[in-house]
Amino acid sequence: MVEKASATRQDVASPCIRNCCLNEDDICLGCYRSLQEICSWSSLSNQDRGQVLHNANARKSLSNNSD
């Protein structure tokens, strides 16, 4: 019996906090992902999801520093 790879891997969880509001640059002010990143999340590999999380954290840091 062959198991599906997706059934055994641990997917990187979405950073969504259900506080969805996009700014003028189409960045969510809840999770700091771009609209494109949000829409493509379910089809991304774990490696790509990790990169999205890295980018979102960088955006969040920049946003917090500009306050």
- Please, how many domains? 1
| Termini gap | 56 Å
Query: Structural class, please?
Result: mainly alpha
Number of helices: 3
Helix-residue proportion: 40-55%
Radius of gyration: 14 Å
Number of β-strand runs? 0
Q: Give the overall shape, derived from the CA principal axes.
A: globular
Task: Please describe the structure with a list of short key phrases separated by commas or semicolons.
mainly alpha, 45% helix, 3 helices, 67 residues
What can you tell me about this protein's structure?
With about 70 residues, the protein is mainly α. The protein has one domain (about 20-65). Helix content is about 45%, strand content about 0%. The termini are far apart. The mean pLDDT is about 90.
